[in-house]
Design goal:
By secondary structure, the protein is of the alpha/beta class. It has nine helices and seven strands. Strands 2-1-3-4-5 form a five-stranded mixed beta sheet, with helices on both faces. Strand 6 and strand 7 form a beta hairpin. The chain starts with a strand and ends with a strand.
């Protein structure tokens, strides 16, 4: 079984959804037959870091949302993250453009380090408050998952993997992705948002059971949390 996941490294529900899927896979008897493919997606292609300001201050300024409202929203997300063992630190988190981080991921994927790089980037952003638009930071993080730092630096100095990032984003548009995380199981079913692990478990079982059938691209609907290019919401 193949699971394709469109996500962004600054999407709080993408990390939560990742943990919920991992929990579901732990209880799935055929988990060794599951292959996960991460896909690039940018919530805010125009995102930029404002030196001296944390996530809440930057988000408030760039989006025109009152600071108190932003802090309340992020407190709710932080509490949700805690339920799956994640420690979000919005008070020191640094708003960043993720395009180069996605180029790094694409290079890591080619080197067989895509999954490790994805986890490292998410943890670095949400828990360690690392600036993901900073080249030195990306080089350091890549080295920590076993990649050659100098090779990574040379890749990031060029435009390499730019097209691959854009292709992933284009495909997302073609298949109707309106928010991330977005999960596609064997081209049969699509799940959007940080679904509970029970919903992921149901999807895994259903797709496995119907493996011999033709792809139908059905969507499983459930109450969920996800991020769009405007905001993170619950539905």
């Amino acid at each position: 079984m193949k699971i394709e996941i469109w996500s962004d490294f600054v999407c709080p529900f993408c990390y939560i959804g990742k943990r919920n899927l991992e929990k579901a896979l732990e209880g799935f008897s055929h988990h060794e037959s599951v292959t996960i493919e991460y896909k690039s997606y940018q919530l805010d292609p125009a995102a930029r870091n404002i030196p001296g300001k944390n996530f809440c201050e930057t988000f408030s300024e760039l989006k025109g949302i009152p600071l108190d409202e932003v802090k309340t929203m992020n407190e709710q997300v932080t509490n949700q993250a805690k339920t799956v063992g994640l420690d979000y630190r919005f008070d020191t988190m640094q708003y960043a453009n993720t395009f180069d981080a996605h180029r790094l991921f694409q290079y890591a994927e080619r080197k067989g380090k895509g999954a490790a790089m994805t986890e490292r980037l998410l943890h670095a952003y949400f828990t360690e408050s690392e600036l993901l638009s900073d080249m030195d930071t990306l080089v350091q993080l890549a080295g920590e998952v076993g990649m050659d730092r100098e090779e990574v630096r040379q890749v990031l100095k060029t435009e390499k993997y730019t097209q691959k990032v854009k292709e992933d984003i284009a495909v997302a548009g073609e298949i109707g992705v309106q928010g991330v995380p977005f999960f596609v199981f064997n081209d049969k079913y699509a799940l959007s948002g940080a679904q509970p692990s029970e919903i992921f478990a149901q999807a895994l079982a259903k797709v496995w059971e119907e493996e011999g059938e033709s792809p139908t691209a059905k969507k499983i609907k459930s109450k969920t949390s996800y991020c769009t290019d405007e905001d993170c919401v619950e539905q």
